[in-house]
Design goal:
single chain; 294 residues; alpha/beta; TIM Barrel; 2 domains; eight-stranded parallel beta sheet; two-stranded antiparallel sheet
């Protein structure tokens, strides 16, 4: 299992369907999320854990995460005890609402890492924000510094957020513009990796709506999107990847600015567009992303 630097797509699969895990790792998704929370009935959680553990070991060379059950559930401790392995890419913890939740998760993970003899901090956390309180506390959550450092990034869960708020999610997504903006701003202000966007669940057959939804998330500053069907992966990968034209223009900008800067100029035009330091840094960021995903 390699360390993930950038996630465009993370594909959910039910933990009690190991056959789907085998299929998911053959897709182009940057990561696979085995779900032990909403996708698994309460009565089946205990018998599902060994299945998930087997898949983590079987597919150790892939980027596999596990969404465990919430900190306040009777299942959380058992989930960690059985599934906190060195082969685990990240652990996704649902319903994170305050910094204390991260501190408690870190305490439990540290205990387990010490017990099984792996480096402290090996298992990082993606905190799922899916309530009004979680959104309100977003910056406090992402600014929480644990020892060792645990937080990879946060992800937005709009279904539970909508339930909490008593609203309905629409294809146009105006009702979730505020939480999206707040989560993306919180990550940037805390200088952690950009967040992952909520799955698009309204109409799995409407590819145009999915693409539009992914583009909105990208515009807010998300690095990628959670997916609930393999068909969504290709579209989201494309949206969150720099285009060929963007890469070529970024290369021109970096090259031209380097030449100009060496001659004492820090503001130029490239193909009629104004270029200064912020534009150059954005171009460098595009090239870094392109390198990570290729």
């Amino acid at each position: 299992m390699k360390e993930i630097e950038f996630i465009r797509t993370a594909l959910f699969v039910p933990g009690n369907r190991p056959d789907r895990v085998d299929k998911a790792v053959t897709t182009a998704a940057d990561a696979v999320i085995i779900d032990l929370e909403d996708a698994v009935p309460h009565a089946l959680k205990a018998e599902t854990r060994p299945l998930v553990r087997d898949k983590l070991l079987q597919h150790a060379d892939h980027n596999i995460m596990v969404r465990v059950n919430g900190l306040d559930t009777e299942f959380f401790d058992a989930d960690l005890d059985e599934l906190a392995l060195k082969e685990l890419c990240h652990i996704i913890i649902p319903k994170i609402e305050r910094p204390a939740h991260l501190r408690e998760a870190n305490r439990r993970l540290t205990e387990i890492e010490e017990k099984i003899g792996i480096p402290l901090g090996s298992i990082s956390i993606i905190a799922l924000i899916e309530s009004a309180l979680g959104v309100e506390n977003a910056f406090r959550i992402v600014s929480e510094k644990t020892e060792p450092d645990r937080l990879f990034t946060i992800a937005f869960g709009s279904a539970d957020f909508a339930l909490d708020m008593g609203i309905e999610i629409t294809k146009s997504g105006e009702e979730i513009a505020y939480p999206r903006a707040r989560l993306a701003l919180a990550c940037r202000a805390a200088q952690i990796k950009p967040p992952l966007d909520t799955p698009f669940m309204i109409d799995l057959n409407d590819n145009e709506a999915l693409e539009a939804d992914a583009k909105r998330a990208k515009q807010f500053g998300f690095q990628g999107k959670l997916c609930i069907h393999p068909r969504q992966v290709e579209i989201c990968n494309r949206v969150f990847s720099p285009t060929k034209e963007e890469i070529e223009y970024a290369q021109k900008v970096v090259r031209a600015f380097g030449e100009a800067e060496s001659s004492g100029t820090a503001a130029i035009q490239v193909e009629g567009k104004f270029v200064d330091y912020p534009v150059v840094e954005r171009s460098r960021r595009i090239l870094r992303i392109a390198k990570l995903i290729n």
